[in-house]
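New to this. Explain these tokens.
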Amino acid sequence: MELTLTSLSPFAFGAINCQKILAIAPQRMRYKQGRSALPNHLTVISKIDELQDTERRSANYHPSIWEQKFIESLSTPYISELYSDRLEDLKEEATRLIKDARDTASRLELINSIQRLGVAYHFEGEIKEAIDLIYLDDTTTSDLFTTALRFRLLRQHGYSIGPEVFDRFRSKDGRFMDGISQDIAGLLSLYEASYLGFEGEDDLEEAKRISTLHLKSLVGNLKGDLADQVQQSLEVPLHWRMPRLETRNFIEVYQRCSTKNSALLELAKLDYNLVQSAYQKELKELTRWWTDLGFKEKLSFSRDRLVENYLWAMGFTPEPHFSKCRIGLTKFICIFSAVDDMYDIYGSPDELRRFTNAVNRWDIDHALELPEYMKICYVAMYNFANEMAYDALRDHGLNILPHIRNQWVNLCAAYSIEMEWFYSGHKPSIDEYLRNAWTSVGGPGMMTHVYLLMDRVTKANLNDCLDQASNLIYWSSLITRLSDDLGTSSAEIARGDVAKSIECFMNEKHISEEQARDQVWQLLSHSWKKLNEESSRSSLQKSVISSTLNMPRTAQCIFQFGDGIGTSIGVTQDRLTLFLVQPLDI
């Protein structure tokens, strides 16, 4: 069946044809086994005539704003060994709060607060029991706030619930009653719930439209925290927010709330600071790895963005027990970012075709024929893949190398297509662009590494789980690509890079940049509905599903105000300072 996304904007450009987008699925490919042994160093001189530096393109990325000495100097008094007893006491108090909640409304508000405060991972079993009770209690209520909150939390936790629960707030003609127009808490709750809609749920689209309309008309008359919360939600709905950023922001709001629980607030602050301490430790280990890797000196054309790349990993899996995953994912992102810059701005077409071929063959001997800068990149990639594969074989008896290698092959193939478009002057259609771009953004590679690094993989479920996750990864990656394009297109247009989604819409539909951005936003919103639906019916582990949702949330955080990686001075720096440097006062 052909899927179309009808334009919701005031500009009637026709429908976005998504048939080809929907038909795309990650293809499992087989490749010859690569070597695991590497020479200590490479001494063969490349036979390729390398371009002179003056002939190469440059993105003029600014140097890293995070000095190694500064990262090594990070410290905090909040060490887990010193605060473990207090943490356990506070967890016990919070557990009692959950168990003592006697009605649906109090359970809903408590679980909502616990989740937004960032401590829900401590109470997964207790929250599951409470959500079960909420689901079983289908007592009709005239309270829009509670009805919408119940819908949102049940959808979020994978329970079956439809938008018909809002029918009691509609008149006979199907429109929402005028009486809700001044119910600010109810409207905000309805607005947030509408973002968990599935494709085809027109009633939720209407709920989103009417709640947005009323909230925009009211926000100017609001004051204090309520005004800030409404404005923040209108800019970024709760369902789209990066968890760690939401935690920091909501703690500030919750501590000013008259109905706050002091033990829960202290738990949230202490947990935030203890997790921050774990992040500091990981970042110190990573900065030593990054320095030893030598990319800053050998690949000076590429982005020196270790800390910003760690932000990606922090966004995917913020919980402290995923330390191994964050460290490994950061390393992968650092290496593939350099490969991306090599294809985007620095390498010649001949060099890049040779690099692509070397990756396809996955044989260290083929790296010897590459230019010196490419050898550095290739060996780093090859070493990291084999080290990760060795750890999985040693610790779990699993051969994950084919899966890692497959992602590098697919990623470089996608980069190569974009490179050929650039040098041939080809202007892809939006469908042609997206068929390639969901891979070139790095989403499938990042998600595969997250899954393999979570240590939740067994011989029995390795292949099945990666196959089951393919649609989740596709929609998550597509949203990430569109967010990336919205944030980076202006700089890339000025630099003359290959066309991205905004330019593709402009070229294909002969529209302005502003109108094209509106089309990209529509496609992004549509893709969130598909991701909501896929995540709701998935039987994969909760941690895997959460990470597929967190990838586009992190992308939204990074690209909200522009290219938060390429130009990381400003909002990105401020947010990283909150996450990594500044503890909360307790």
About this structure: The beta strands are 4-5, 16-17. The two ends are 56 Å apart (CA to CA). Confidence is low (pLDDT under 50) at residues 1-50. The longest helix spans residues 262-293.
